[in-house]
Specification:
The chain has 568 residues and is an all-alpha fold. The protein contains 17 helices and no strands. Helix 1 runs parallel beside helix 4 and helix 12 runs parallel beside helix 14. The radius of gyration is 58 Å and the shape is elongated.
């Protein structure tokens, strides 16, 4: 009784002991991890403080020339002191707080504080490195900007030589460009003044100003000759050619309204005037691009006009063909509709049977209306013949569909007449074949004609009479007529095959019995031949033939195969 209880108690105690040990281990691991993170923050803090910003500030004081530079160095010093005394003090306090948080095992609070400290240290490191870069620039700014000025002067000299060598290309703008060069010379002198007076802020402004002025005059020197050629020669020449072409096209009957040429010419004139006004003060930003775009646009207009001539020629050809096709469809529909009552009466057609023809007529009427609308638009010429061609081609596709459907409908209606004619021809054929069957039977002397022959003969005669009745009806039901013809043809061919079998079997049976008489002295042969003769006189010619053939094959092996080859 007591042993189980003791075991349970021991198990519980062991479980609690294991849980306690695991909890202690986990807590120990977490605490070590957080301590390691604090160490990383200390390392990061010390690395930032070890950045030699103070040394750079001290060096800067030795190089400082002028109040502006000294003022900037003092600002860097104050900023750095503030980082060390304020920001880093706060960071130290926050790191100290982390030690207490570790002991209280507030993990989420630890992570939050740790992130804030890491962000603050990163900001300070960036700020210190940035100040070092700016201090380096301050201590070497004179060499830096003199180097820039040397490059700018070289570029300036190249531009002045280019200008002096090609002054005639700049027309009325020579004096304006010369004044701009003089302004650049003045700015070079301004640079020497501010650099000698250690006016750091002004040096930066003067250098940036010179860069902008030289870049601008460089664009002027490069692009202004092309701008003047476009404005004074190429574009006016294109506009003149365009007006001449417009008059020529008008004489040929083209209005070209859809191209809005008047509006486009006014817009081109407006843009040109704006560019000329801006060019007077050497403001040519995007001017060359705009003028080239205008020239390309004018060239495209010439191409479009030339295409319009081709489109007009294509339209005239296609339209002529389209008119002929429409006339043909119109005549066909008129002829069919004029004969519609006769067709209905002759073949018993209902309105539903002619629904396709009605649909074709409706589609044709709609098509003609749209075509007439297109021709009215063509006369106004408010759109391109290219678009008219596209519309006409679309109408042509629809007309082709109407033509195809009309052909199919004509074939369907024509097939009724063909079926009637074919029925009359096949009636003559089966009647002739029936006569042949009767002659075949009558041409041979046989004792008995089997009853199935007369049954088939009666069926064939009746089927032929049914064809004659259908052809005499008004209206003729083509489906019924075709069925009657098919039935009669099948029955007559069946009778023909039966006739051939009777005649052939009787002929070969009679001849084989005569041939087998040579073996009559044999009792078995005599008995079998008597049986074959009985069958023959009863009209069972096929059985008689088989019986005679079997006994002959017994006494003349291979005889059966030879006869089968002959009979087929």
């Amino acid at each position: 009784m007591n042993n189980p209880k003791i075991i349970i108690i021991i198990a519980v105690v062991a479980f609690l002991l294991i849980v306690g040990i695991l909890f202690f281990i986990i807590r120990k691991v977490r605490k070590n991890s957080m301590n390691k993170k604090i160490e990383e923050l200390d390392i990061m803090r010390n690395e930032i403080l070890s950045i030699p910003l103070q040394n750079q500030i001290d060096k800067a004081y030795g190089f400082a020339k002028g109040e502006q530079i000294e003022e900037k160095v003092n600002h860097y010093k104050e900023t750095y002191e503030n980082i060390k005394k304020v920001s880093f003090k706060e960071i130290d306090n926050m790191i100290t707080e982390l030690d207490f948080i570790i002991n209280s095992n507030r993990r989420s609070e630890f992570n939050e504080k740790y992130t804030l400290i890491e962000i603050e240290l990163t900001k300070n490191r960036y700020l210190i490195n940035h100040m070092i870069e700016e201090i380096k620039e301050l201590t070497s700014y004179e060499d830096k900007y003199r180097g820039i000025i040397i490059k700018l002067k070289n570029k300036y000299r190249v531009l002045t030589r280019e200008f002096e060598s090609n002054k005639e290309m700049y027309g009325v703008f020579v004096d304006t460009i010369s004044m701009q060069f003089e302004n650049i010379e003045k700015r070079f002198n301004d640079f020497e003044t501010v650099i000698n007076e250690n006016l750091y802020n002004e040096v930066v402004l003067v250098v940036h100003s010179l860069e902008g002025m030289i870049d601008h005059i460089g664009v002027v020197i490069l692009e202004l000759p092309d701008i003047l050629v476009l404005v004074n020669d190429l574009i006016p020449s294109r506009l003149k050619d365009l007006d001449s072409l417009r008059h020529s096209m008008a004489e040929d009957g083209f209005t070209l309204q859809f191209m809005n040429l008047d509006y486009n010419e006014k817009e081109i004139e407006r843009i040109e005037n704006d560019i000329v006004d801006r060019t007077k003060v050497l403001n040519i930003d995007n001017s060359l691009l705009e003028l080239k775009t205008i020239l390309e646009f004018l060239d495209s207009l010439f191409k479009d006009i030339e295409k319009e001539k081709i489109y007009k020629k294509d339209f005239d050809i296609t339209s002529s063909s389209f008119n002929d096709r429409v006339s043909t469809v119109k005549k066909t529909l008129h002829d069919m509709n004029s004969q519609l009552d006769d067709i209905k009466s002759l073949y018993g057609l209902k309105s539903d049977d002619l629904k396709d023809l009605e649909n074709i007529t409706e589609e044709y009427d709609v098509l003609v209306k749209e075509y007439r609308s297109l021709i009215r638009r063509v006369k106004k010429q408010e759109e391109s013949f290219g678009k008219f061609n596209k519309n006409l081609n679309e109408l042509g596709i629809r007309l082709k569909r109407i033509e195809d459907n009309l052909d199919l409908t004509l074939k369907n209606l024509g097939s009724m007449q063909d079926d009637e004619e074919r029925a009359r021809e096949q009636l003559e054929e089966v009647q002739e074949l029936l006569k042949t069957c009767k002659k075949e039977i009558q041409s041979v002397r046989i004792p008995v004609v089997a009853n199935n022959y007369f049954v088939e003969l009666g069926e064939a005669n009746e089927a032929i009479l049914e064809i004659i009745k259908e052809l005499e009806k008004k209206p003729i039901i083509i489906k019924v007529l075709n069925t009657r013809v098919d039935t009669a043809r099948d029955l007559v061919f069946k009778l023909y095959n039966t006739t051939k079998n009777i005649v052939n079997n009787a002929y070969y049976a009679e001849n084989l019995i005569v041939y087998a008489n040579r073996y009559r002295n044999i009792s078995e042969v005599n008995k079998i031949l008597n049986k074959a003769e009985i069958m023959f006189y009863k009209g069972n010619y096929e059985g008689s033939l088989k019986t005679a053939l079997d006994i002959l094959n017994k006494y003349e092996p291979g005889f059966k195969d030879k006869i089968n080859e002959v009979i087929g």
